[in-house]
Each structure stands twice: as C-alpha cells, then as structure tokens.
Amino acid sequence: MSETPAASNSSASTRSEAIFSGAHLIGIGGAGMSGIARILLARHVPVSGSDAKESPTVLALRAQGARIGIGHRAANLDLLDSPPAVVVVSSAIREDNPELARARARGITVLHRSEALAALMTGHQVACIAGTHGKTSTTSMLTVALQHCRLDPSFAIGGDLNESGSNAHHGSGGVFVAEADESDGSFLAFSPSVAVVTNVEADHLDHHGTVDAYVAVFDEFVRRIEPGGVLIACADDPGSAALAERAEQAGVRVRRYGFTANGPDDALAAGFTPTGGTSDERAGGSELTLRVDGVDLALRVAVPGEHMALDAVAALLAGLELGAPREGLIEGLAAFGGVRRRFEFKGRSGQIRVYDDYAHNPTKVSAQLKATRLVAGQGRLLVVFQPHLYSRTRDFAAEFGASLSLADEVIVLDVYGAREEPIPEVTGKLVADAVDLPADRVHYEPGFDRIPDLVADLVGDGDLVLTMGAGDVTSLGREIIAALDRRATRAGIG
C-alpha cells in the first residue's frame, strides 16, 4: 500500500473495532502479521489469511485455528464461514493484490497492520519501543523482564524470543509492549504512555524521501504520547538526544539513559565490562554500573555488546515507568536469552563457530562487529554480509564499507531487493569496494550457492563466521557448517 496510516480518530477507532468480528490477513506468515494473528486467535477471533508459501509460521497458525491459503487469490477471502469484517495489510501489499482488490470491491474495511495492532492495544497501558535500530532487542528485553516480574504482558515483537519461540502473545496483564516501526511511518497509529527511542539516524529514505522527513516522523510519534506519559531517550545518540530536547520544550516528560545522561531522572551508565559466556549459545555478556533515581545498581546482561547493555538500560527505565519492581526487572534482564536472528548461534564445525545476525544498518553492523570481536577472542572474524534494499545500498555503501572494515575477512553478497525493483549499477560491489581491508581479504560474490565452499576455504580453527543482513542470508549458516564438515572429512581421509 502506498499510504502511511493516519493517526487514529473516532472513525478510525470504530473501523478498528471491527477486527474482533473476524479478520483476513494478507501475508499472514510475516513477522508483524503473524503476531497480530496469534493475538487475535488467542482472543477467539475467527482468522483467515494468505501467504506466498508454506512455512513453519503458517503451520503453527493453522494449528491454532487460522484458515490459510497459499498463493494470493481473491477466493481466499471466502476461507471463513462468514466474510471477514476486516482485511489487514502491510505496506508491502500492492493495490493490485487480488485479495485486497476484492475486499475493496466488497466494501470490507481495510486496516494497515499498525492500525490492527493499535486496536489490540485498546484498554492496556502501552509501551512502544522505536528507533532506527535496537528496537527489537529492547522490546524483547522489556517483555522478558516484565514476564520475570509475573506481569504477563501482551506483546508484539519483530523477532522470536528465544525463551518462548514466539513473536507475540495475548497476556492476562494490563500492559501491552510493542515494537514500533518507523520505516513507513506506521508507528503513528499508536498512542503509548511509555515511548522509548533508542536512536534516530538516517534510514528508510526510500519511503521518507529526505533525512529531515525521517527525523520529523519521530517528532510526530512523540506527539502521540498520551498526556502524562514519558519519552525515554538515549543521551549518547545525537538524533535521540536532539529529539528529547525538542520533546521537553513541547512539555513532554523525558527520561534519558546512557554514559552521558546527567539529569535527576536519568539512568547514568558507567563501568561497562564484557564478561565471558558459558556456552556457544551464551557467548558472552556484560556488566554495567548504573545510577537510577539516586540508587547505584549493578546490571548484568547475558548477550554481548555495549549496544545491548544500553538497550537493557532503556528496558529497565521503561519497566520502572510501567510500575514493575526494580529488582525483578534487573533479575529478568540478567536472564534474557536473546532474540532469534540477533547474534544467534547456528552451530560449529570443529573449532569454527557460526552465528547469524539481522543487522542491516551501518551503525548496527559496526556495533555488532565490535561485540562479535569480543566473542571471537584470538580467532579471526569473517563476515558474510548481504546488503538489504537497493536504495539503502546506494545511499550508504561507504558507511557499510567502513563498518565491515572491523572484520578480518569480508564476503559481500548481492543486494536483497525485498520490496524494491533493481536500480541500475547498484550491486553489492559498491559495498565491497568501500571496505578498507587488503584486496585479498574482501570478496564480492554474487553467487549465493558458492558462499559455503568459499567460507570453508577462507577460515581456520578458532575463527568465527557471522552471516549478516535482513534478507535470506540467514539460510546460509547451516550450509556453511555443512561445507566446513565436508572439508574436515576430506582432510581426515587425506
């Protein structure tokens, strides 16, 4: 869809209420859509949907009672016993989609995914986590910490929690925690009482057009905070810090966190110390000292990286604003086991470990590589990076190259276009050419099927391999391990 969902009003609220009579979700297997489906099914709402192909997510939703057709066709709107009251779409669904076209012809209410999620939030105390990057991890940390406090929040996250294996849940408590997506402005459908903004950096210019427009949408999001609510902002990030200043001038209560936070209501971090992990799955973490509300605290995080530690501080402040007990939150954050595709351990072959990460923004790539370097120890770090979106690759190739230069060896795949059509001469080579490493340690390889054997030829015992990107690069982890195993078998026979 081309439009950005508008801020809610009385008519929008009335339209949203219709979702509880029955809903059809186009692209139901996607991360955001499947979460909405799970919550609706838990509330005993009739749900149908469609997706391009079968997947574990589709199978799980069918097991919960959803009726799902494979392939997009108008007849999918007839899967329920009675016509759906609402059809839910994401920004990726085009106007010529046959299901959407039939819904409009029939006069069925069409809701953007964010409007549907906003309807599910009704009657809850809402916490929304936004930012250019870090929002999935922060949302997940807050959710797990609240669960540890036995508050049973409802939640909708852009990734699956390692603890539950799910990205959404209909809880019995009065709190709803949601990841808020700024990429298409859809987070403007929400009106949280607690809003977290981890950072604001130029991104998603394919939708917003300019950096100024991208920054402005965060200001509009802050204006959506309920009266008496709070903005929690990272003092260390220039974009988030500037947003906090503007919010305060507009009368919004602000709490900051970070190593440079210095207000009486802020969370001042200090003493960041990396710690070793006890297994490959928990390959390292960190400890922080904090001063919050005049009290000195020790915060332990089981996932590696300073950026993850700061995400945990944001989650702590949000949990406190939601009324959760401080000690319970701290214990819950220490127990947080991570999110799938966020430095997820895929396996090992001998002394070579393979991880996968979703990072697709230059700053997040840099932060994750710094954290991974600590885990790699004395071994070399090889990164297999897949650029995501032609426009992002064109606009930030130099920044990606600088970030990837933190590795010892880099393989760059071709661009994963996702929703975009190719742009002439924009390929992964733009990123590879920008990496500041010796030429024999940077490889542009557009042949996806050649990657596993190339990795096997490049790494040795003690090295760490990290596949990275928001596309299908995640599927390479197991194939790389298999290629390493084959190499080890040949060496043993030889």
Short recap of the structure:
The chain is of the alpha/beta class and 494 residues long.
Characterise the protein shown here.
The structure is a single chain. By secondary structure, the protein is α/β, with parallel strands linked by helices. The chain has helices spanning 10-17, 31-42, 56-64, 98-106, 113-121, 135-148, 205-208, 211-223, 238-249, 306-321, 326-335, 362-376, 390-404, 429-434, 451-458, 476-493; strands at residues 23-26, 47-51, 67-70, 86-89, 109-112, 125-130, 154-156, 168-169, 175-179, 194-197, 230-234, 253-258, 267-275, 285-292, 295-301, 344-349, 352-357, 381-385, 409-412, 442-444, 464-468. The chain has a 10-stranded mixed β-sheet with strand order 8-7-9-6-10-11-12-13-14-15, with helices on both faces. A 6-stranded mixed β-sheet has the order 16-17-21-18-19-20, sandwiched between helices. Helix 12 runs parallel beside helix 13 (390-404). 52% of the residues are buried. Residues 1-11 have low confidence and may be disordered.
